[in-house]
Design brief:
two-stranded antiparallel sheet
C-alpha cells in the first residue's frame, strides 16, 4: 500500500477590506470580504516542509489591500478576476487561483435640512443596507487558461403572505401535517449563477438577475417551494442569456397559524407563529441544456 498526497490548496481567508473612493466631498464605499486559495507545485511543502514554492498567506492578504488602493474596487467579479490572474501569472509555482468575494452594502444617509445648513446632501454618511450579501466566486488558471465566474447573493429574505399552497404529498403513519390551500411562504434565498464567459457587464447582470429572482417569487402562485425555486431560476435564464446555470438553496421559514379558539377568537390566517427550526431545506439547480460543464466552478 502506498500513501500519496491528494488534491490540496491553501490561502488567506476572509480579508476584510473597506475602500473609500473620494470624489471631492462625495464618498463611495466598497466593503468586502475576500478569500484566496492557491494550488500548484505544492508537493514538497507537504512532503518535506520545503516552502520554496509557497507564496505566504500574509502576502496574499497584503495584495488584496494593495490592489484595493491601486485599482479600486468596482464590480466584485472584476476585482476577483484581477487578483486571481495576478497570483497565477506572477508566480510560476502557482497554477490555479480561487478568489471568493462577499460585498456588504452601505446606503447614503439623506440629511433633510442639509441645503438649509449649507451642506451637500448624503456626502459621507452611510447606513448599512440590511442583511443581504452579494457574492462572487472566480477560478482562474491565468494567462490563456480556463476561467469561470459565479455570481450570487445570500441572506435575501422574502415572504408571500398568501398565494401559496401545499397538498397532495405522501402521507404515511408518521404524517401529521395538514394540507393547506392558503399559507405564508417565506424563505432566505441563497442563489448563485454561472456565467458563460468572463466579460459580462457584471453590475447590470447582477441587478437584473436579482430582479428576476424577486419578480418570479412574487408572481408565482406556489404549490411547493420546489416549484417556486424552478420558476425563479427559469426567469433568470430566460432574461439573462450570459448566465447558463442557477443554483439555489431555500430554507422554508415556517409560519404556523396560531389556534386562538381557546380565547373565543377566529384566526383567518392573520396571526402566525414563526418557527426558526427545524426547517425544510429546498435545493436545486436550473440550467440551459447546452450549458458547458464546469463542475469545479462552484467549489
Amino acid at each position: 500500500m502506498a500513501i500519496v498526497l491528494g488534491p490540496n490548496r491553501y490561502g488567506k481567508a476572509e480579508t476584510r477590506v473597506v475602500r473609500v473612493t473620494k470624489d471631492g466631498g462625495v464618498h463611495r464605499i466598497k466593503d468586502c470580504n475576500v478569500s484566496v486559495s492557491l494550488s500548484g507545485d505544492m508537493d514538497e511543502v507537504h512532503l518535506t516542509g520545503d516552502n520554496a514554492a509557497v507564496l505566504p498567506t500574509d502576502t496574499q492578504k497584503n495584495t488584496v489591500f494593495a490592489f484595493a488602493k491601486k485599482y479600486g474596487i468596482g464590480e466584485i467579479e472584476e476585482f476577483a478576476l484581477l487578483l486571481a490572474r495576478h497570483f497565477v501569472d506572477s508566480q510560476p509555482t502557482i497554477h490555479h487561483a480561487r478568489v471568493e468575494v462577499e460585498e456588504y452594502s452601505w446606503e447614503r444617509i439623506p440629511v433633510e435640512d442639509a441645503p438649509h445648513l449649507g451642506l451637500r446632501d448624503e456626502q459621507h454618511s452611510f447606513v448599512r443596507g440590511g442583511t443581504e450579501v452579494r457574492t462572487a466566486l472566480v477560478h482562474s488558471d491565468g494567462g490563456d487558461g480556463e476561467e469561470s465566474v459565479v455570481s450570487g447573493l445570500k441572506n435575501l429574505v422574502v415572504l408571500n403572505s398568501t398565494g401559496s399552497e401545499f397538498y397532495g404529498y405522501i402521507e404515511d403513519e408518521y404524517t401529521t401535517l395538514a394540507p393547506t390551500h392558503d399559507r405564508i411562504l417565506a424563505t432566505e434565498v441563497t442563489a448563485r449563477w454561472r456565467h458563460r464567459g468572463t466579460d459580462s457587464g457584471w453590475g447590470r447582470s447582477y441587478r437584473d438577475a436579482r430582479r428576476c429572482l424577486l419578480e418570479a417569487f412574487a408572481e408565482t402562485h406556489s404549490l411547493s417551494l420546489q416549484q417556486t425555486l424552478y420558476q425563479m431560476g427559469r426567469r433568470v435564464l430566460n432574461e439573462r442569456r450570459e448566465i447558463v446555470e442557477v443554483r439555489m438553496a431555500m430554507p422554508n421559514k415556517h409560519h404556523f397559524v396560531v389556534d386562538l379558539s381557546p380565547f373565543g377568537m377566529d384566526n383567518d390566517n392573520e396571526v402566525f407563529f414563526a418557527a426558526d427550526r427545524p426547517y425544510g431545506l429546498i435545493e436545486g439547480a436550473v440550467l440551459d441544456d447546452d450549458a458547458p460543464q464546469v463542475p469545479n466552478a462552484w467549489i
